[in-house]
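Hey,

Quick one before I head out. I ran the complex with zinc ion overnight. Inputs first:
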Amino acid sequence: MYVLAHLGIASLLARLTGGRNPRPPVDFRIVLLGSMIADLIDKPVGFALGISGRALAHTGVFAVGLTLLAVGVQMRGRNGLLWLAFGHWTHLLLDGMWEDPAVLLYPGFGWAFPPATATVFDLLLRFQDPFVLGGEIVGGLLLVTLGYSSGLRSWAAFKRFVIAGELPSRTNNRMHDR
Ligand SMILES: [Zn+2]
């Protein structure tokens, strides 16, 4: 799984989990960040250290730690981190981390992470795999569909979403609620 598949499927699952008009509203920017945070941390570290691109941030310890931290922050009245953890769990699921128990159950199999087995070029070659390419197409279509149905139909609306996390559909719902 690559970028669009992670972003699109995490957003869909957050939409399904949060319902149509959740209170407090879901900040989809946090979900999107959570869905990629494992790769944002591990890929550069992996290339720098010559270890696998699935390392510390792909472990169960990291996911559980992030979730506990999120629950702690939630108890103080803020739910942003919970959606970050939610996005992160979808990432581990879509990466099929159960097939990589040495990383998922770290440090149960030893302290060292597996060495790098793929170069950037190898990663790009994986797009020849119909499963990977199909996942990216589905993820991209999901992002477009979810964005469009949330009212992100103009550059101005998209900018408001990026800067403030606002979705036009939510603003309309609030007006209907009055
Ligand atoms: Zn990953």
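The radius of gyration is 18 Å.

Talk tomorrow,
K.
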